[in-house]
Amino acid sequence: MIGGCETSILIPSSTTMESADERIRTLKVGMIARAAAVFRVDRIVIYRDAEFDDSRFISRVLQYAETPQYLRKRLFPRERALRYVGILPPLRTPHHPTSSKVSTLKVGEYRVGLVVDEVGSDDGAWVEIGVERPLPLRTALRFQTGQRLNVRIFSLKPLAAEPVDRSEIPHYWGYETEVIPNLDEHVRSSERLVVATSRLGTSATPDLLARVVRQGQRRGLELVYGSPARGVDAFLSSETMEGCCVINTIPHQGTETVRLEEAIVATLSQVNLMRSLEG
User: Fold this and answer.
1) Residue 209 in contact with residue 237, Cβ under 8 Å?
2) 184 and 236 Cβ atoms separated by less than 8 Å
């Protein structure tokens, strides 16, 4: 979590509606995944747009991009939605390590793991963490084969890992993906600060952004974006809009329209800078 609170971005299921080319759609989703990772977003929420629902494709590509490379073949069978994932930009986050050697592991190192079939004679659980062989999982808890979990290396001789909760990991550890049926209902029930991004909103200023960051640190922050065809106000009732903080994070834009992935980067970069200045 950045700034000690959860940060979410909410994007429409019509995010990919402008192109029928699956390569372009895949790359667009990959750019959103990359932006989310750069700015340490905790959750990407896809809300359904009745005019164009590509939520399954978007969620699958986002999930694939977030998964460490060494687990992808085990967790994602061949399917059409993932046909062009080879063009995705790598996230290069702390939970995507580049080393695959047991000899480079360190005590206290965190990894994303996958419980594999029992190996050995003690019937204990073993976990795949992207090195030459699975590691024994030292725990009294029971895990199912194929279950993803986070682990910490606690011993090198003998080599062993233990499960840890995500909240215990001091590094940015990727984003979760969620699909929701109705944006208006979600926003009305949210206890977090909801910021709707719109060219019709109040122009972003240092003072306004500082207030957003301070409230977001206390309550959590949700940044909502409209579709390529319609603004946020098309998905929220006037009453719900009144309860949101509506901000234009790209005032005086030089283009007729701003693409969704551009708006995400622009907004997150401003929030990130203000968080840094606020300390």
Assistant:
1) no
2) yes
Cis peptide leading into residue 77 (ω within 30°): no
Distance CA 263, CA 195 (A): 13
Share of the chain above pLDDT 90, in %: 90
C-alpha distances in Å from residue 196, one per residue of 48, 180, 209, 213: 16, 17, 13, 14
Dihedral sign, CA of 260, 212, 202, 183? positive
Q: Which two tokens stand for residue 187?
A: 């926003």
pLDDT in tens, 192-243: 999 999 999 999 999 999 999 999 999 999 999 999 999 999 999 999 999 9
Q: Give the three-class secondary structure for 246.
A: strand
Q: What are phi and psi of 209, to 5 degrees?
A: -65, -35
**Structural domains in the chain, sorted by start:** 7-93+174-278 (3.40.1280.10), 102-168 (2.40.50.140)
Cα 197 from Cα 263, distance rounded (Å): 8
Between the alpha carbon of residue 191 and those of residues 187, 207, 244, 259, the distances in Å are 8, 23, 11, 28
In the structure encoding, which two tokens stand for residue 37, read together?
């990772």
Angle (CA) 267 273 278, round 5°: 125
- The tokens describing 214, both together, are 């301070």
How far apart (Å, rounded) are the C-alpha atoms in residues 211 and 143?
A: 43
Beta-carbon contacts of 133 under 8 Å, excluding residues fewer than 6 positions away, are 102
Q: Which two tokens stand for residue 246?
A: 């509506």
Largest CA-CA distance found in the chain, in angstroms, rounded: 67
- CB 132 within 8 Å of CB 101: yes
Closest CA to 113 of 153, 159, 71: 71
**Two structure tokens written together for 18:** 């402008």
Instruction: Kindly write down the DSSP assignment for every residue of 200-228, as one continuous string.
Output: EEEEP-HHHHHHHHHHHHHH-EEEE---S
